[in-house]
Amino acid sequence: MIELGFPDRFVTWVFSSITTVSYSILINGKPTKPSSAKKGLRQGDPMSPFLFAIGMEYLTRHLQQLQTQTAFNFHPKCKKLAITHLMFADDLLMFSRADIQSVQILLSAFHQFSVASGLEANLDKSNIYLGGISSTEKAAILSSIHIPEGSFPFRPLIEKVVARAKTWTARNLTYAGRLQLVQTILLSMQSFWCQIFILPKKVIKEIQNFCRIFLWTGHTDPLRKSLVAWFNLCLPKAAGGWNIKEMSLWNKLGRSLDTKWPAAMSWPLKKILSSVQMIEDVGGWVTVCRNGKFSIKKMYQCLLGDHVKVPWRRIVCNNKAFPKSLFITWLALWNRLPTRDRLVAWKITTVEDCPLCTTKKESAAHLFFECDYSAAVWNTILHSLKFTRKASSFDQELALILKATKRTGDRYKLLVMYFAECLYSIWLQRNEMVFNHKCRRPADIVLDIMFRVACRATASQHMFLLN
Ligand SMILES: [Zn+2]
Question: Where is the Reverse transcriptase domain (predicted)?
Answer without folding.
Answer: 1-147
